[in-house]
Amino acid sequence: MTVRVRIGPIEKDIADADPAWINEQIDAMRKESALACVQVTIRERTVHMVLVTAGCPGAGEAGHLLSSEEERLLNLWDQFHLNDETFSGEDLTAFLRQIDGSDRL
Fold it and tell me: What residue ranges do the domains of the chain occupy?
């Protein structure tokens, strides 16, 4: 599975998106404006999706019919409060840990 994380204008592979960087970027965005924009792009054989937080332009736009794996990932996104404007860096890190399945985050 390929996972990319974009916070504001900076994008990293999940392997390079450590918790300190995630928290720094979200805090910096919130100092500039009230909302932080995070995009997580996930690509796999049956998954092709971009999940966005409420602070991103176009958040909430519908795409294609979801596969069962995409639906599972979307439910996890909701479970970790990433649709709420007040999500935290810890919420994002927990989501990434869950989908990555490793302890590197």
Answer: 2-100
Q: Could you tell me if 81 and 87 are in contact, meaning their C-beta atoms sit under 8 angstroms apart?
A: yes
- What pLDDT sits at residue 60? 59
pTM of the model: 0.88
Which are the contacts of 62, defined by CB distance < 8 A and separation ≥ 6? none
- Is residue 76 classed as helix, strand or coil in its secondary structure? helix
Tokens of 50: 């971009």
Q: Which two tokens stand for residue 2?
A: 């390929």
H helix intervals, 5-88: 19-32, 68-79
Tell me the per-residue pLDDT of 65-98, one tens digit each, with 9 for 90 and over. 888 999 999 999 999 999 999 999 999 999 999 9
